[in-house]
Amino acid sequence: MSSFHEFDVISAARTWRNDATTAPLPTSTLKDVFADDVLTSDQLRQRLSKPVWKSLQATMEKGSTIDPAIADTVALAMMTWALEKGATHYTHWFQPLTGSTAEKHDSFVMPTSDGNAIAQFHGKELIQGEPDASSFPSGGLRATFEARGYTAWDPTSPAFIMRHTNGATLCIPTAFASWTGEALDLKTPLLRSLECLNTSALRAMKLFGHDDVSKVSSTVGVEQEYFLIDEEFYFRRSDLVMSGRTLFGAKPPRGQELEDHYFGSIPDRVLSFMADAEHQLYKLGIPIRTRHNEVAPGQYEVAPLFEGSNIAADHQQLIMQVLKNTARKFGLVCLLHEKPFAGVNGSGKHVNWSMSTDTGLNLLEPGETPHENMIFLFFCAAVIRAVDTHQDLLRASVASAPNDHRLGANEAPPAIISMFLGDQLTEIYDRIESGKGGSSKRAGLLGLGSPVLPTIPRHAGDRNRTSPFAFTGNKFEFRAPGSSQSVSFPITVLNTIVAESIDALSRSIEARLKKKQSFEVALQETLREVYASHKRIIFNGDGYAAKWHREAEKRGLLNLPTTLSALQHLTSTKNTKLFSDYGVLSHREIEARAEVMYDQYFKTVNIEGETTEWVAQTQILPGVLQYLQDLAQTSVALHGGSLATTRTIEQISQGADQLSHALEHLRAMNLELGGDTLLEKAEHMHENVLPAMLAVRKAADQLERVMAYKHWPLPGYREMLFVK
Ligand code: ADP
Ligand code: MG
């Protein structure tokens, strides 16, 4: 038997250079590369006649359906552009409830009767597609006998070219719905929620006298955290391959305690990977801005500049895809899982969210004038009310089996949704509540206490890293979303709950105006009332502290540490009513979503349970027994052994017994499903399978620390996290 591991640490550390395809050096300037593979509206305009362009432009701006009379012309222009870019196929690109993206490629090629072929793409193929929907999760919305699902072009998100090693495909962003018109995807409700937010915010802007504004939408910038490990290790760990996270692994002697990784210099191999990925993302028109090392060893972050939230959500999916694909070029694997490694930081996806007008005003940015600040305080108060009223929804929007390892597991952010405003902004609202306004008697400006208001600091100085929902000067940062999830649903929830709160505030002001109160007083009274009722959600302290957990409970805030506890709330009367009142999700649609989320939870843990059993039984235990056999032989050779052999044999055989014991229990739990309903199955996973897996892991991790290295079948944390 070979005395070396099957996995080779040295080759992992050394050989990547040989097969890495280096990033195309930027021979062209960024300006030339940027959005080169995107069918921008500029590109389209150049290819269409004026009347066709005008009609299409109206469609794109309103997000309405395209005039069938121009569809063929537009399709032809799109195809011509795509052919010039080297595309041979097109696909409707959509986002089913799995959270990833789906595509079904069709060729442009159409054989002709004379044995030749032409390229063809018709308006009807652009507008609507009909992929077989039966294999996508629908939560019961689409019975299998009625498998049809439709994809419909989203003209508000530009088409783009996806390249692979020897070809390219035209991707057309689409929504995906059942034949009854029910949303089967994540994009449709997002688009609907944008419409609500627009309507509500425009109504409010009118109250402020802003008739100039004709559109308000949410803006989103997403920070993506991820790990990179050598593929040599990845493919030798079936737990990583099957479940995306390590189900075994003793903590290495060195973790992140030296804190030397965060913002540290980026290793050459990783930087080359980043440059390559960024180059591709630039071509896709994704404005990547930031890259750096994250807190844990082997962990990194990438973030683009913010964009309109529909496009930002599409781009976020592309970022994940490009990161995963590009890593392989460098002999690396990109892990997007929320908690690939126990004992070191997990990965999140911070969703930075704000609202802006088509006149260029960021509604969550303190302004230069008292008038701008009133607008700011109004919209900020709407967010405060929204987050407090719908803590449960925000929490549920990020609920998943992998994210449970972050939220509620002593990691940032905690499972209690609270809001960080910063001391200065909190003080301003406190003053409004107490009616003190500014320090000056001249309460001049609109009774809101002028000397204070106009000087709202632009950068609310202090930062807080433990808050799940933090004000960061001109936007809110929702830190609870998981690194592998689609951001569409969290954004949909944010848009909807803030729209509802804006309406509540507007109604309050309008009612007061009717009673002949001045606008200033009406606003002030409204802010006072909203703040007083919802300020319990504001917490500027340390979100980790046990003290906060007790305090939050006193305040009546929800603490939902697990997916199952959070998902219960998704279909509460309050929430189904909110979604249906705003036309974002019907009762059936929200129930279907909850069902898919329960199902995914159940399946995820089920796969982990089976994988744990499998790896422990077929890899770890045989290694342990082999080592015991070696030790027994040594003992015989030494005529009864020595202190060292006796001790080691004792240690290893005890560990082996523990492992075997835990494994028996896990096997029993894996065989059982816990019940017939999805909820019962999910609960069985949470209550029985997860603890049983953990017991197996504990026994195995203890063994890993005492076993002969050569008999340990899996690459360890010290290899995976530190070989670069
Ligand atoms: P930090 O790591 O300090 O939280 P980053 O600079 O890494 O911040 O990321 C901040 C993100 O917030 C970026 O994607 C940025 O474009 C985005 N952002 C900035 N302004 C807005 C805004 N008005 N709306 C939405 N996102 C914004
Ligand atoms: Mg951040």
Key words describing this protein structure:
single chain, 724 residues, alpha+beta, Ubiquitin-like (UB roll), Creatine Kinase, Chain A, domain 2, Four Helix Bundle (Hemerythrin (Met), subunit A), 3 domains, eight-stranded antiparallel β-sheet, six-stranded mixed β-sheet, 16 strands, 12% strand, globular, binds adenosine-5'-diphosphate, binds magnesium ion
Low-pLDDT sequence parts: 439-454
Which small-molecule species are bound to the chains here? adenosine-5'-diphosphate, magnesium ion
CATH class of the largest domain: Alpha Beta
Number of domains: 3
- In the CATH hierarchy, the third-tier topology of the largest domain is known as Creatine Kinase, Chain A, domain 2
The total count of helices amounts to: 24
Shape: globular
- Report the strand count: 16
Class from secondary-structure proportions: alpha+beta
CATH architecture of the largest domain: 2-Layer Sandwich
CATH homologous superfamily classification of the largest domain? Glutamine synthetase/guanido kinase, catalytic domain
Q: How large is the share of residues in beta strands?
A: 5-15%
